[in-house]
Amino acid sequence: MAEFTRAQLADAHRLASAEADSTPHAWSSTLYAGSLESEHDTVWLMQEGNVLLGAAVLMQVLDEAHIQNFFIHGSHQGQGLGGQLLRFVQQQARQQGASCLFLEVRASNRIALQLYQRAGFIPYSTRKAYYRHADGSREDAILMKATL
After folding, report:
1. What single DSSP character describes residue 15?
2. Number of other CB atoms surrounding residue 40 within 10 Å
3. Among residues 3, 19, 32, 116, which one is catalytic?
4. Phi, psi at 58, each rounded to 5°
């Protein structure tokens, strides 16, 4: 059974390493450390025992919350864990007084787009050529919003 806990600064390297095993677009430990030190961000770990299944970075300002980063470890994808983590994050945002939750996702990430749409997110805009690939090409970001 998955457990959800708040990450600590000491988890920054572990998070970066686990995400790097899951996607070529992973955050660095420096980015995680910045979120862990921010007064507006909460980094949630999804674990089973000592095994890191996934994580989410939630930023909240007043009645708006933003998912800054979200991943399920590559070896645990396709098991419904993304939906569990997303529901948990939505619940946390709601409990902290958010009325809406925002995120952005790569246009090519069809699995994530489907996950977010099933959870009630609707696309509301596109950032053209927002993400950069290693080869220098660019990709659009789809902006999504869910009412809590």
Report:
1. H
2. 12
3. 116
4. -115, 125
79 φ, ψ (degrees, to nearest 5):
-115, 10
pLDDT tens digits for range 77-110: 999 999 999 999 999 999 999 999 999 999 999 9
**Residues 69 and 55: beta-carbon distance below 8 Å:** yes
Active-site annotation holds for 116? yes
- Which listed residue (104, 124, 131, 139) is catalytic? 104
DSSP per position, 56-79: EEEEEETTEEEEEEEEE-GGGTTS
